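A quick aside before the break. I want you to see a complete sequence-to-structure record at least once, exactly as it would be stored in a machine-readable document. Don't worry about memorizing anything.
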Amino acid sequence: MHEQFYLAVDIGASSGRHVVGCFDGQRLRLEEVHRFANGPVNVLGSLHWDMLALWQHVQDGMARACERFGDRFQSVGVATWGVDFGLVGRGDTLLGNPYHYRDRQTDGILQRAFSIASREEIFAATGLQFMQFNTLYQLLAMRMARSPILEAADSLLMMPDLFHWLMTGVKANEFTNATTTQFYDPLHRRWAVELLAKFDLPTRILGDVVEPGTRLGPLVHDVAASTGLSHAAVVAPATHDTASAVLAVPARSGGAKPDWCYISSGTWSLLGVELAQAVVNDDCLRLNFTNEGGAGHTTRLLKNIAGLWLVQECRRVWSRGGRDYSWDQLEQMAMAAAPRASLINPDDHVFLAPADMAREIAEFCRRTGQTVLESEGAIVRCALESLALRYRRVLEWLEELSDSRIATIHIVGGGAQNRSLCQWTADACGRPVVAGPIEATATGNLAMQAISAGSIASVAEAREVIRTSFDVETYEPRAMDEWDEAYQCFLKLCDG
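That is the input. The structure line, written in tokens, reads:
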């Protein structure tokens, strides 16, 4: 077949990129053509995403793709993080800039929510992990603040849905991102409108839910003219970045029960398995796992874990103080530090949005009677080793919930580049770790576009293509006794 071209727009919480996928029928080749910074903007004490700047970046990247490859693209699709959204009013008016999920408006919101509907009732309706920044609680905070934007809204669009609307004029809620809201019913595959009504939240703002691979339409005239992409269709991939990343896991499906798990490793770590249906029961509620939509009508049973955010924030603070370390330098410094000197619970609330992450890590060690870490290398090693031990705890719970034995851990995304984290994960969990591909979200996005075009037949075939196209590295476990001892110390630091 002639080489086909697809364009993935991959926007994360700290940066975005445009990646071209060139598919020759057997192998997928990637080329990044544009990259831009992203992050929250503080507006009068509230954190927002700069939607208009992001939209300009999206168009700039599309234009650069056209400059590099010409007007030969089959399609373009956007994937971002979950939970955050924009509201659209009458006359297709974007009502303000979307809130950032780390904004303080949802502090203390869970207890307010539970006074309206119990934890058990919310979970039974949605099967979702409880996190204060879930879309449900953002909307509830807006209602309690009597937000005029919420009152004026006609449509709710998740972040990638917003970009697809700006590209096509079509409003649609893609399935995988809709499942991150905590008002989507994974068992009946529909909006949990009864739950929203109980919170006195408007259901009129909910649109049609479309599956990954849906062709939304052509680019509107102005966007096609400004970018040069006059022939490209807009296809909704698995728009939640983790769903696209999981599609890119180069695993072979086993029997009825999963024998592999994934860790989508970036700012967050998402550890889970792929299942045919959601797990909504008392054990899943007790362990605070989540059921999110996946490609190919699957469910991703997973738990959100603090990820490389711990190190990213340390690096940011150190850079601000004049110590501007590269990622390679930080990893070398961590390798040189003493192993397992002190440990933290990465998911402790104090690490959600501290002013100084390194100081918060040192303070946690002091508060728990451990060695107070001072050097940058020791702090980074503590964060990464603690993440590896947290993975072990979550893996044990995951095996309990899925009634399966996980033989292999796949790490995809940016964390697959961190050799120390990959090795320590293998050591802590006692399982081989297969690392790669690194650009997993973009790869899964491109693969879904190729499935939509009919160039790839299925998710299983897409994974065969990905195995052929990208190198991976395998890490075997070692020093098990030392990590077993550290794990017992780690468990004492964690509430669950």
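Two observations worth writing down. The chain has two domains: 4-239, 249-436+457-496. The mean pLDDT is 96. We'll return to this after the break.
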